[in-house]
Amino acid sequence: MDKQYYTVKEISQFLSLKQSSLYSKVKSGQIPHYQIGRLIRFKLVEVEKWMQTNKMETVDPGKRAGQLLKSIRLISKMDVNSFGNALKEAGINNLHLHDLRHSFASRLAMAGKDLYLIQKLLGHRDPRMVNDMRTIA
After folding, report:
1. Which domain holds residue 31?
2. Half-sphere exposure (CA, 13 Å, Cβ side) for 67?
3. How far apart are CA 69 and CA 78, in angstroms?
4. Residue 103 lies in a domain
């Protein structure tokens, strides 16, 4: 016998969404759901139909990583003096090009991205290099 109603946790796993993102879609009425008091439930058939009409965008991590690496290579070829001059013009003190790398990794962790993906995007061979990201996520 098929289960008729599914929980937020089950549907977030099915859609590969963070639960907080699913709650946002529920709150804004973007996804069909049933609310009984404080409980939120979904019918799988309706969620699948919603997926077909909304065509949720999926991102290929390998392709996206390639695009990001190309951008990083362009930055690394950029004249470091130009970066320093831009900072001076903007009135920004005590910021280094390498700080942007840390910001990039931190934002990925805060967005709930997998540590393995962060490790690969940063080009680290050793997973211990991104272990401190666990405290951010």
Report:
1. 8-54
2. 6
3. 14
4. yes
pLDDT (tens place) for every residue of the chain, 137 residues total: 467 888 999 988 888 788 888 898 899 888 999 988 889 999 988 988 888 887 655 555 566 666 666 665 555 555 666 777 777 887 878 877 778 778 888 888 888 888 888 888 888 777 777 776 666 65
pTM: 0.41
User: Cα separation of 130 and 114, whole Å?
Assistant: 11
Kindly state whether residue 92 falls inside one of the protein's structural domains: yes
The encoded tokens of residue 31 equal 């996804």
How many domains does the chain fold into? 2
Q: Is 2 inside a domain boundary?
A: no
